[in-house]
Amino acid sequence: MALNKDAMQRTLRLIEALSCLMLSLTAASGLDMLTNDWTLDVRSASDSAPAIGAEGTIYFGTWKGNLWAVNPDGSRKWVFPAGNEIKSAPAVGTNGTIYSGSRDGDCYAVDADGALRWKFHTGAWVDSSPALAHDGTVYFGSWDKNFYALSADGKQLWKFPTSGEIVSSPAIGLDGTIYFGSHDRKFYALAPNGNKKWEFTTGGPIISSPAMNRDQCLYFTSVDGCLYALNLDGTLRWRLRTGGMTESSPVIGADGTVYVGVLRHPWAISADGKKKWGREGGEDYALETSPVVLASGSICFVSRYGMLIYVKPDGTMELKCYLYGYGYGSPAVGPTGAIYVPDRGKDLGCGFTALRAGVSLAHTPWPRFRGNAQNTGNAQDIAP
Length: 384
Description:
Shape: globular
Distance between the termini: 60 Å
Number of strands: 32
Largest sheet: 4 strands, antiparallel
CATH architecture of one domain: Beta Barrel
Structural class: mainly beta
Number of helices: 1
Radius of gyration: 20 Å
């Protein structure tokens, strides 16, 4: 008798779970067995890329509009309620303040003890993740089509209008220039005082966030299906047609290779813009998240379906593990090698999980979404 769709899906998940176990046991290249360290029931799904504070606290937002702080042992530290869903990735400042946008239209600054420091209201959703300058300035965009600069005490310093909604999270270059994309198909470079330095037009909205390659160039994708490399003066270095139209933002490996999710495929692109490889992920492997480059050289991708995969620098599949569903947020990697991801959990409504991998974040120009563990989006915070 033919299996119905639900039974077939359960069978496929059982197979995936078994293959996760087998691949974990046989994983090579110095990776420890990828085991579940803990899972915390947070009672909501999450699309927010976690940030890690100096003391190891993990911060992330949820669909229910809560900003969570979780201790390294998996226990709840505190929960701060925003007014609506949090897709923005929180950023942790040097003084321990956590900054995050919300779909209630506010950008929040929350103290390390979970108390509200200030909030700033915009005219629409704030999905853009804040970038933090060393002088305390907070930069982010809004669906109200404006890009904002706030002082450390939450006062508006300036705003820059565009012709489209802004979901792209900004990056700050070594010289303090701020870079971001907009739904108006343009990629912008602004001086710290808000003056436009240049703009670059693509063929579609820009929902990706830039990866900074130190003082050489930057990378981002557009919904026009291309990956772009721009020189820091705004001139085109190269453009590669990928066909991808997801939110997956590029990251950079130790040898300059650029990694990005292209629809269902992990891609590796050489520093001169040539495709090195692309793996077939399968129909359930839609890669919306940004990959993470690990110190072992492996690249970690997580699909919308919930499959976490490790790929070697040559494109060979190394390890995979099923997470029982996932969001759009890129994983975080702790200093001890724990990987933190939203995970519905086998027996939970919605959870947040620590996987013990024993491999830390790579020391590259931009190894993950927002550049570093604190999500500051600032190239100055990434050691060469």
